[in-house]
Specification:
9 helices, mainly alpha, globular
Length: 190
């Protein structure tokens, strides 16, 4: 919120226009494959998903991230530098968020300081619906991608059926609550 406020203050809430056509390629270019075109943002997202999956499942750092999420005290007692892992996670989060921001700005063709307001809920919903535990230590990139696809299909389906856009957040919140309840129920059965 602090950085969002700084951006709003610096721009006085006005969008930045005239970013150039070459910048827009990142967000609007379709890679031709046969008779169809694959959107470049989808390709970038899938490449990043594969890289993050490999990082989380095939490296010591990935193991440490899951260990820290599962039980920070136990991870620290086992010799993991928990502060170093947290710094790495926050740095990677910021880097990947910046890539998402660049792709969104390129897609919109304008840098609006309010463009992604409220997307935090979308991200949490996609992660939780995809099987990531809010308690930590569980989840996968594939699950998050599936969760994001489910949430987008839900949003598109509601719009196509004529549900008012004002109700979308309520439905999204309900989906998150149900996913959390399911996660807690699943954990209690173990």
């Amino acid at each position: 919120m602090m950085f969002r406020g700084v951006v709003l203050g610096l721009t006085e809430g006005q969008p930045v226009r005239g970013l150039g056509d070459t910048f827009g390629i990142i967000g609007r270019y379709d890679i031709p494959i046969g008779s169809i075109g694959i959107p470049l943002p989808l390709v970038i997202t899938l490449v990043l998903a594969v890289l993050v999956h490999i990082f989380l499942t095939r490296t010591v750092w990935g193991y440490r991230i899951y260990a820290l999420g599962g039980n920070e005290t136990a991870a620290g007692l086992s010799g993991i530098n928990t502060n170093g892992v947290k710094i790495l996670v926050y740095t990677l989060c910021a880097f990947l968020t910046a890539i998402g921001g660049v792709m969104m700005t390129a897609r919109l063709g304008v840098a609006s300081p309010t463009a992604a307001t409220g997307y935090e809920l979308d991200v949490i919903a996609a992660a939780v619906v995809g099987g990531t535990s809010l308690s930590g230590g569980e989840g996968s990139i594939l699950g998050v991608l599936i969760g994001a696809a489910i949430m987008q299909a839900l949003r598109n389906g509601l719009v196509l059926t004529g549900v008012s856009a004002y109700w979308l957040q309520a439905v999204q919140g309900l989906v998150i609550v149900v996913a959390i309840m399911f996660d807690q129920w699943r954990k209690s059965r173990r």
